[in-house]
Amino acid sequence: MKPLTSLALAAVMSLSGQTPAQRPKAGPVAILKSSEVKPGMKAIAWTVFEGSVPEPVPVEIIGAWKNAWGPGQDIIIGKMGGRALKTNVAGGMSGSPVYVDGKLMGAIALRLSHFSPDTICGITPIELMTEINDFDKSRPADAKTPDKPQTRAGLELPGEWLPRIVQAGLGSTVAAAPMMVPIETPLTLSGFHEATLREFGPLLRQMGLNPAQGGASSASLSAKPVAGWQSALQPGETVAGVLVSGDLGVTGLGTVSYNDGRRVLAFGHPWFNLGPLKVPMSKGEVLMTLGSAFQPNKIANATSVVGALHQDRHSGIMGVLGDTAEMIPVSLDVRTFNEKDGIDQQKHFQFQVAVQQRWTPFLMMLTLFNTVNGVNDFSEEITYRLQGNVEFDGLPKLSLATMQAPSETPIPPPMVLSSWWADKFSRLYLNAIQMPKVKRVDVKVDLLPHRRAAAVESAWLTQTEVVPGGELSGKVFLRPFRGERIQRDFKFRVPANLPKGDHRLLLSDADVLNRLQTAAGFSNRYIDIPQTVALLNQERSNTKLYVSLVQSRPTVYADDKTMPSLPSSVLNVMQSAQPQSRPFVTTSESASEQLAIPFDLVVSGAYNLKITVK
Questions:
Q1: pTM metric for this prediction
Q2: Between the CA atoms of 37, 39, 43 and 49, what dihedral angle is there, to the nearest 10 degrees?
């Protein structure tokens, strides 16, 4: 839609009882304090209905609702007219500035609960929003994020993201809502499939977000502000916080409330209530404003990055024009294999993910799930093989690999796979010592035909007696999902210092060997980033069968270190001097890995054999 002509603008101003006013511009402005607000005042709000140019909307002030936001925090109640009579108070209007006789009163931020026939809005006083610039830098305890810290012990599902998604989907009952609620922030997901919104939508809606499929958002892979950022984001224009950009896009849209020439205030309510943050801030373009008594909403795209958001507070968000926010470049390849192990097709995706301790893992999960679940080659019996590398600034590379096959659980393998992937980033970004500095992420996901999974069935040795340093050989049998059992030969030389007597030979999957070492890493909340990376790199693959010699001597797992076969005297000293802040895990046996047998399928189970050293 084209901007209103001066004649149409005069007509709107006439309906509001004011003299015609010009569209607001960046710079200092007179403020109308909430204490000066009187019922019956005629105001003008500015917001974008189509395109990028804001339009005036008459607002009749009903009065100030005392302490509605909290102690000493009033909300101004108004009734919108003009074009808003058709659209209602829509998602994306959050932050629309409201003026009385040229003085800035505040920003539209709330609306009545669903199905109200009146265009009643709540206006956050501008005094509350300008406080954002003076807020302390601490992060609020009630931050609205995709997860909360959880106790990992006893959690059977992989990671902490999968239970959150499942829980949100189950908790779909309608709860009582307050009369006046913050306008839902439209969270536009560009390049995302309907199945992704269906799976993740309940969780996002619990957070006061309104997820919606979008068209092409800013396709730029650069988070640097574009030329002309100095004149961007005038009051009333659309502003977006960018969480993902590139081939996939995730953006939260609202309206600019105030621009002093460098700092921008918007929304009039929290986005995620994270406190300090730093994500790209962009301009936006509204395609249309959907009118609805239930869920009116602006359908919009983010366009060009012009700065970075710095604060996400109770009364709004604040960004700085011309600033640059760090993002993580992600390269993702999805390859589809045929029955002959040849590649039928390959798709390549490039995008950037915002850096935030709780949102980065969630966004990694969201993007991976979308790319592997939305291909035409998807079927219930597909097996997924993932190989990924995470590069850091000043640390060794983190190499990750896993395979997920269908099972009898109701959770689809793409969700299990993406949860596993997100959990690795959670362990990095929820580190209690420091934040990681990730340079880039490369990941490949292969779609393999059929369910590729097998369980250890039995094993035997050609001989059960051996001398120290001698050789042992045998066979192991695995039972796959359908088809004939798999047989593999194995051979290894026992250590020359292995004591005489009976010992146990353990043939097991990765989980049996990883369990205690992983528990040791989780038990110490002060493990740092280098130790976390080392611990993750030591995790064994679920596509291998491990042959280990087990002795009745204690092992200590501390942080990222494994100390096997400790003498009892050393263990007693360690236990007596163990600091509470740095716990370690002990076991009465020591498993010494001798051999890893690779498979192109998920291996599960274990089998024990007895050997005698003469």
A1: 0.84
A2: 110
Q: Beta strands 606-613 and 465-466: pairing type?
A: parallel
Q: Point out the least confidently predicted range of 76-80, 257-261, 525-529, 598-602.
A: 525-529
Name which residue leads in pLDDT, 560 or 426: 426
Q: Class assignment of domain 6-133?
A: mainly beta
Contact 216, 5 (CB under 8 A): no
What distance lies between CA 167 and its chain's CA centroid?
A: 16
Pick from 363-372, 492-501, 579-588: least confident: 579-588
Both tokens of residue 417? 């796979």
Residues 187, 158: contact at Cβ < 8 Å? Answer: no
The CATH T-level fold of domain 184-327 is Thrombin, subunit H (2.40.10)
Higher pLDDT, 310 or 34: 310
Burial class (CB in 10 A: 0-12, 13-18, 19+), 462: exposed
Q: Which two three-digit tokens encode residue 597?
A: 């047998």
Other beta carbons within 10 angstroms of residue 147's beta carbon come to: 19
Please say whether the beta carbons of 301 and 285 come within 8 A.
Answer: yes
Rounded to the nearest integer, the mean pLDDT of the chain is 83
Q: What is the dihedral of CA 118, 108, 224, 287, to 10 degrees?
A: 20
535 contacts: CB under 8 Å, gap ≥ 6: 517, 518, 521, 527, 559, 560
Cα separation of the two ends of the chain: 90
Mean pLDDT confidence for 350-379? 87
- State how far the Cα of 301 lies from the Cα of 284, in Å rounded to an integer: 6
457 to 240, 489, 494, 545, 604: CA distances (angstroms): 56, 14, 24, 12, 10
Q: Give the C-alpha separation, 107 to 419, whole Å.
A: 38
In 10 A of CB 551, how many CB atoms? 17
C-alpha–C-alpha distance, residues 210 and 218, integer Å: 19
Where do the structural domains in the chain lie, given as residue ranges? 6-133, 184-327, 337-448, 453-613
Task: Say if CB 307 and CB 121 are below 8 A apart.
Answer: no
Contact assessment for residue 277 and residue 309, using Cβ atoms and an 8 Å cutoff: yes
